[in-house]
UniProtKB/TrEMBL annotation:
Coarse class of the protein's main subcellular location: membrane
Annotated C2 domain residues: 28-162, 177-301
Pfam families on file: C2, Copine
SMART domains tied to this protein: C2, VWA
CDD domains, sorted: C2A_Copine (cd04048), C2B_Copine (cd04047), vWA_copine_like (cd01459)
GO biological process, one term: defense response
Protein's name in the database: Calcium-dependent phospholipid-binding copine family protein
Annotated localization: Cell membrane
Molecular function per GO: calcium-dependent phospholipid binding; metal ion binding
Family named by the database record: Belongs to the copine family.
GO CC list: plasma membrane
Keyword Calcium included in the entry's annotation: yes
Membrane topology reported for the UniProt record: Lipid-anchor
Length: 550
């Protein structure tokens, strides 16, 4: 088998196969394991998007024929510079082309992604040339359009029609309309169906001399050439011949289909990496569902050793499926397409770890020159995104970790100073409330996320109880030093069933390791102190320096 897990602790907590060795030899990328993580909902507020393009009413620039248009897609940076993302093919003799070539890009919720579209008429002498090497300055410019990717995504049918504009050389500063460009966005997810299973074995064989076995399961996909691609691995359970493992999650797209063959192997964990095969079973999701429905177990078997003529050995050991459930892993875009109204909430860290707000080195320092501090810049940057989504632009806004005048430390206080309501008007309202709060509170601590998360969860649960079609996003801006890590995990697990996502933006240069723990993109789902596992990952963490650099 090779070195599946390099140490005891790693092997016994190996759900998802995060250890090295067999599933990730030499720390190289393993697509099967990466896809397994993605199938478990660790996608955050971003999705892979495929854009399709068509145009109509283009200007005819050719004398004896119609134009031969090509479309070039750019991303516009914060400094105005254009970065080319891709080109379509050339459509010959058409003023209303529908291009076949698609462009795929990553849609990031937390970033304003400005797209620019240029349409050219390709000269006849270049028709046989590869579009990648075309010199655009040698082609005739037909027009351009621009929009934010979020403007396309937020449309119910995910399509947006834009006017193509071209500078009018006869009228300084004026632009002429020269056709229309239609852009259609589609999420690149083959299947959103995820199967959750709880697997159990009975009567496993003894392999350890002085103790019982330490079994774990390895689930692999069997591909056409007979190779096995590992896609899921349970934890190892110590000294148990009748183990029940924690739930595992398999995405149908990752497996191929419910009928595709799977190989389930049961191993006895050894710290040296030479794990003993206790038995195996070839099955499929369809067959596993039948085992669950019938309450029956399937016998494991062992194949004869290479070079031996003995028959396959059917073992007394059996595999049972104690839970089999299918669910649709809805994404952020599904909520938008389903007509859900988005509502945003903001929480700002006022703890003393940010530094004395009266000193220039503080993250909360208000510069008399008007230069925004780290928190103000984060509010402005993310605010550019919020305005595309929240219809009424009234944001519940809280602070945490500060001591109001003549009061105890509060871990969730209304930023506007009101005792009765927490909403402010627009991004400017957040900025004004933030500045005012700095004058009326003292930075304190400790840094507790739990209270603001619970407050947001109460609002989301009340909306669900009232039959509302609302999806909530809580933005937490923090310097990243968390005190109540387990309490925060408990709050997140409790909130994971609600229409709520949490975007944490880290400011400053603090250690953000604990934020990475809360964002389960690269590991297991969060588990509460009571042992409950989050139904989905609802946290996305991004350092503010990364947002700025995009």
């Amino acid at each position: 088998m090779g070195n599946c897990c390099s140490d005891v602790a790693g092997g016994r907590t190996a759900i998802g196969g995060t250890a090295g060795g067999l599933l990730n030899p030499g720390n190289t990328s393993n697509d099967a394991v990466d896809n397994f993580f993605k199938s478990r909902g660790y996608q955050g507020l971003f999705s892979q998007i495929e854009l399709s393009f068509s145009a109509s009413g283009l200007r005819d620039r050719d004398v004896l024929s119609k134009s031969d248009p090509i479309m070039v897609l750019y991303a516009k940076g914060k400094n105005g510079a254009l970065e080319e993302l891709g080109r379509t093919e050339v459509v010959l003799n058409s003023l209303s082309p529908t291009w076949i070539t698609k462009q795929t890009l990553i849609y990031h919720f937390e970033v304003v992604q400005v797209l620019v579209f240029h349409v050219y008429d390709v000269d006849t002498q270049f028709h046989n040339a590869d579009v990648k090497i075309l010199k655009l300055e040698e082609q005739q410019f037909l027009g351009e359009a621009t929009c934010a990717l979020s403007e396309i995504i937020t449309k119910r049918d995910r399509s947006l029609t834009l006017d193509l504009l071209r500078q009018d050389s006869t009228r300084s500063g004026n632009s002429q309309k020269c056709g229309k460009l239609k852009v259609y966005a589609e999420e690149c997810v083959g299947s959103k169906t995820t199967v959750e299973m709880i697997l159990r074995c009975t009567d496993l064989e003894y392999r350890d001399l002085f103790s019982k076995s330490d079994p774990f399961l390895l689930v692999s996909k069997v591909v056409e050439n007979g190779d096995h691609i590992p896609i899921c691995k349970t934890e190892a359970i110590k000294n148990d011949h009748n183990p029940t493992w924690k739930q595992v999650f398999l995405n149908v797209q990752q497996v191929g289909s419910k009928e595709n063959p799977l190989l389930i192997e049961c191993y006895n964990f050894n710290s040296n990496g030479k794990h003993d095969l206790l038995g195996k079973l070839q099955t499929s999701l369809v067959e596993l569902e039948k085992l669950y429905s019938g309450g029956q177990g399937e016998h494991l078997f062992l194949s004869p050793a290479v070079g031996h003529d003995s028959q396959t050995k059917v073992l007394k050991s059996r595999l049972f499926v104690d839970k089999f459930s299918e669910s649709i892993q809805y994404t952020f875009l599904d909520y938008l397409a389903g007509g859900f109204e988005l509502n945003f909430m903001v929480a700002i860290d006022f703890t003393a770890s940010n530094g004395n707000s009266r000193l220039p080195d503080s993250l909360h320092y208000i510069d008399p020159s008007g230069r925004p501090n780290s928190y103000q810049r984060a509010i402005i940057e993310v605010g550019e995104v919020l305005q595309f989504y929240d219809s009424d632009k009234r944001f519940p806004t809280w602070g945490f970790g500060a001591r109001p005048i003549d009061g105890p430390v509060s871990h969730c206080f209304n930023l506007n100073g009101s005792n009765t309501y927490c909403e402010v008007e627009g991004i400017q309202g957040i900025m004004m409330a933030y500045t005012s709060a700095l004058l009326n509170v003292s930075l304190a601590g400790p840094t507790l996320f739990g209270p603001v998360i619970n407050n947001a969860a109460i609002i989301a649960s009340q909306s669900v109880a009232n039959g509302g079609r609302k999806y909530f996003v809580l933005l937490i801006i923090t310097d990243g030093v968390v005190t109540d890590l387990q309490e925060t995990k408990d709050a997140l697990v409790k909130a994971s069933d609600l229409p709520l996502s949490i975007l944490i933006v880290g400011v400053g240069g603090a250690d953000f390791k604990e934020m990475e723990i809360l964002d389960a993109d690269k590991g297991d789902r969060l588990e509460s102190s009571s042992g409950r596992v989050a139904s989905r990952d609802i946290v996305q963490f991004v350092p503010f320096r990364d947002v700025q650099s995009r």
